[in-house]
Structure prediction request, 280 residues.
Amino acid sequence: MLLFSSSNPHLWRRKVMQELNQGFVDAHYNSGFADMKREDDAVVHNTQGVVYSEDDEQTRAITASSKMVELDPHDADTYYNRGIAYSDMSELDLAIQDYTKVIQLEPGFANAYYNRGVAYSNIDELDLAIQDYTKAIELVPDYAEAYNNRGLAYSEKSDFDLAIANYSKAIELNQHHAAAYNNRGLAYVSKNKLDLAIQDYTRAIELNPKFSGTYYNRGIAYGRKDEIDKSIADYSKTVELDSNFANAYYNLGNAYAYKGKFTIAIANYSKVVELDPDYI
Prediction:
């Protein structure tokens, strides 16, 4: 099963947007739907999100930060801000270099470990990502996002018990963490604990009713339990929220075909082909 986990890919920022006390900025999640062909491919709200600098001026930010580095090569914040800009532009090797410099200058900078962990996750260096999330947690024990992302890394390594433990800790620290509920639901599905998965998906939907992926994931879980009507309802809600979600139309087609409603099934399969002529 392809994991489309719900992570919070936000990069922590300092001295970039001072009004954001928690350091979070708008995040855009890469869904990777195009590669999901099987009915049971679950949607993971993943760590490979892209975060954009204010006014989308990453190049200017890098130029300005580089000049500041020349003036003061010992200022950790300058490297940190440039690392964020490099992350924004998916220049992850350069971002990692800058976060590493931050850590050399300021070893107690938890957010630098977290951001470097996100970058490592994005290049599939999962063990290094786990090390960085762990260090961030050592420095800030109530760092819910670090637990969530460490859970994602463990999920990617198919270590679902450790993943569940981390998602559960993230939820303990932040009971409104919709992504952690979605991710734990995925891990429960991987262990065939469908009722627990459905409970988590339902809670995630209560907290974030606009994320189409969680309805899709719950639809898969209901389908595995042969609760086809509930599965259809969730896939239908998925496409209501995201009319370009080809996999949801495909699964709707399968569900209607299972119920013998072939005309409706064909209509949904036709929508898949309309969205992706190469869909197989």
About this structure: The longest strand covers residues 27-28. The chain has 13 helices and two strands. Residues 13-40, 44-53 have pLDDT under 50 and may be disordered. The longest helix spans residues 58-71.
